[in-house]
Amino acid sequence: MGVYERQQREKKILEAAIQLFGEGGVHATTVSDVARKARISKGLVYFYYKSKEDLYLALTKKGIDELKDLFNKSFGKTKEKTGLEVMSTLVEGYLSFVQEKPVFHEALLDFFSLLPLYQQEKDRVSPLILESPYFTKLIQSHHDLAKLGIKAISMGIKDGSIRPDLHAESTFYTLWSMMIGYSKVTGSISLEPTDIKINAESWKNGFLKLFFEILKGSHTPFKSQPIQGKLF
Fold first, then answer.
1. Which among 7, 146, 153, 158 would be 20 to 30 A from 179, CA to CA?
2. What tens digit of pLDDT does each residue of 143-154 get?
3. How are the residues of the chain apportioned to helix, strand and coil, as percentages rounded to the nearest 5?
4. Which sign, positive or negative, has the C-alpha torsion 190, 193, 194, 197?
5. 84-108: buried (b, 16+ CB within 10 Å) or exposed (e) per residue?
6. Whether residues 31 and 93 fall in one domain
């Protein structure tokens, strides 16, 4: 079998898994389901992906690679953009990624949630995960996302668009945790509780206001268009 044919079959299986995991969830989806969706035998799925865990980690790696590409594109032509502008593009790109590709984002969060256990009690991590070549690749490459964010903040500190008293590494990880937290809470906010004066628009406005005040300082606050139910 040629390399191209192998790559195409792997792609076909992964595309089927992405659709099924997104529709029914990982736990409810079986390898047999993926095989039927891809219109190939179950045995052939196992030839390319050794387990459902291996397949899910392949999906996770694809998701992180796509998000990394999005972060890279945030820089554009760096001579024409400040570090703050890069961070603005980066955070908007991330929020769009969360909305448009939820199965990738959930896989990313699942991987991040697994890391403390992997570091502290590796023997409790499933061997099917540890044996996956995609898990090894993820361990080696997941910091690439943070490196790009740190690069943007460092650039902004240097060009004066971001306050100079910030530590680039700790600042990005703080903002990264805010971005992830925002994405997880948005669903709850969207329910628009009657006894809490907030909605999805005002929540996003308030989040971005605080996000950019961290980078620029409160003396130059982030400005957004007035909207009904504005939080700040």
1. 158
2. 999 999 999 999
3. 75, 0, 25
4. negative
5. bbbbbbbbebbbebbeebebbbbbb
6. no
Count of structural domains, the chain = 2
In the block, tokens 């139910």 appear at 229
CATH number for the domain spanning 91: value is 1.10.357.10
- Burial environment of residue 51 by CB neighbours within 10 A (0 to 12, 13 to 18, 19 or more): middle
In a domain, 232, yes or no: no
**Residues 105 and 13 placed together within one structural domain of the fold:** no
Same domain as 108, residue 89: yes
Q: Is the distance from CB of 204 to CB of 94 less than 8 angstroms?
A: no
Range of the domain at 157: 50-216
Do both 12 and 86 map to the same domain?
no
How far is the C-alpha of 58 from the C-alpha of 38, rounded, in Å?
A: 16
